[in-house]
Amino acid sequence: MNFYSIAMTKEIDTGESPTVSNVMARIRQHIFEGIYAPGQRLIEKDVVEEYGIGRGRAREVLKSLVGEGYLEFEENRGVRVRRLTRQGAIDIGRVREVIEGLAARLAAERTFTDEERSTLANIQAEMDRATEERDAETFAHANRRFHDLIVEVADNSVLTKQLEILRVPIFRIQFQQSFTTASMGERNKDHQRITQALLDGDADAAEAAMRDHVRRGNARLVEFADRLFG
Amino acid sequence: MNFYSIAMTKEIDTGESPTVSNVMARIRQHIFEGIYAPGQRLIEKDVVEEYGIGRGRAREVLKSLVGEGYLEFEENRGVRVRRLTRQGAIDIGRVREVIEGLAARLAAERTFTDEERSTLANIQAEMDRATEERDAETFAHANRRFHDLIVEVADNSVLTKQLEILRVPIFRIQFQQSFTTASMGERNKDHQRITQALLDGDADAAEAAMRDHVRRGNARLVEFADRLFG
DNA sequence: TCGGACTAAATTGTCAACAATCACGTAGGA
DNA sequence: TCCTACGTGATTGTTGACAATTTAGTCCGA
């Protein structure tokens, strides 16, 4: 499962009313891509028109997304895309650290298939190359596939879902930040350590390396956000 | 914040329609207490009558709880209390292990107030006494307060919410199991280690001890559930 | 006895209309 | 100029009725 393709379900273009889960997936994707920005209100009327559903349905979809943590709700004022405070970012970061660490542990505990081994090696090689060539965009893309692969191999549905939600509010910031090549060398060293531990099947090392990696990322993230927003 | 008192909000008995969040809290509490058993369907009409709200509202409340993970939804068949598969219990257990571990770490990183220190010491003393006297009920109660205190001191809103949801589906099983005095000695030894690490402010030790403790609990839980359900 | 088709009740899905509330601009007076 | 009061449009809250679907029972024939 690749969480960057949450809403890659095909459009139903037959004039039929889209399913509730379909609409939810599309809104999630919009939030993820930043089409719906943090703090932006989602007006029921707009959702109704945009997705071609009734208002009752729209309200239920929005309430579900509130429950999942994508949206905030305020009485008589509807919903808006969840905003991130400085403290919230820190809180998320610490939880994300241990969850991503667990993903690495679980992945390392599993016996990799040959295909998984070569996929991992290929992604690592691509990141090495991108680091060498200071190609931030390629690195960012490979970075995503790297983390996704680990979560996929970890094969824990609870972890997958929680991590998806934890990643949403910081994804945009990470994206902007990723074009800073300054940290690329350090980040790739982390990746190499993680990759090695995974291929060795060393769960302790994999978890420790991943936690260090995420912790450093969190520190950069908070610093970056502070520079942006004061 | 004590997550066992989620729905302790007072009844509004004025004939007024209860607030949405109030109803949600009460349903959560019912699920937690097992009044709504896993797999049990929640019929919209019943919810409407039970809580005195309109059906539209009821549907939105239920959809929110689906989003939060308390309920499962199936098209044209409504919602039911989330069921737990064997694999699901294992997946939850592994995530819970690292989250509770993080709670212990965060708690240990904080400087305890005198009041917190004495509260912790009192709970530990109560558990020691209960273990000595093989008083399973007292032990179970103190055990809850112990884990709640740590989460509260950890003071991380993301952690608090995630842990609350993770605990729901296994709470009932833990409750039945808690009257088994067999593991009480072992469990209290774990608690002592955790308490000591917390009072020492040793974050590494606190996290490690808590993770070991939860991992052992998970193992007992799965074994217990297997005996129950085959 | 078994199984399939049919009916009726229960339940969920959908929609439209109306009420309540909020946001915002404007007019009037000190 | 400033501030309050008011009114209007925009938005959310709520309800009820009706449609679609599922569920459960019954009848009937092989």
Question: How would you describe this protein?
Answer:
Two copies of one chain form a homodimer. Chain A is built from nine helices and three strands; from the N terminus they run H-E-H-H-E-E-H-H-H-H-H-H. With 230 residues, chain A is mainly α. Chain A has two domains: 3-81, Orthogonal Bundle (Arc Repressor Mutant, subunit A); 86-229, Up-down Bundle (Four Helix Bundle (Hemerythrin (Met), subunit A)), CATH 1.20.120. In chain A, strands 1-3-2 form a three-stranded antiparallel sheet. In chain A, helix 8 (184-200) packs antiparallel against helix 9. Chain A is globular. The first copy, chain A, starts with 19 loop residues before the first helix and ends with a helix. The A-B interface holds A 19, 56, 59-61, 63-69, 88, 91-92, 94-95, 97-99, 101-102, 106, 156-159, 162, 166 and B 56, 59-61, 63-69, 75, 88, 91-92, 94-95, 97-99, 101-102, 106, 156-159, 162, 166. Chain A binds a DNA duplex (30 and 30 nucleotides) through helix 3.
CATH superfamily of the largest domain in chain A: GntR ligand-binding domain-like
Helix content of chain A: over 70%
The chain-level structural class of chain A is: mainly alpha
**Any idea of the CATH topology of the largest domain in chain A?**
Four Helix Bundle (Hemerythrin (Met), subunit A)
Strand order of the largest sheet of chain A: 1-3-2
What kind of oligomer do you see? homodimer
List keywords for this structure.
230 residues, mainly alpha, Arc Repressor Mutant, subunit A, Four Helix Bundle (Hemerythrin (Met), subunit A), 9 helices, 71% helix, globular, disordered N terminus, DNA-binding, transcription regulation (chains A, B), Tscrpt_reg_HTH_GntR (chains A, B), FCD domain-containing protein (chains A, B)
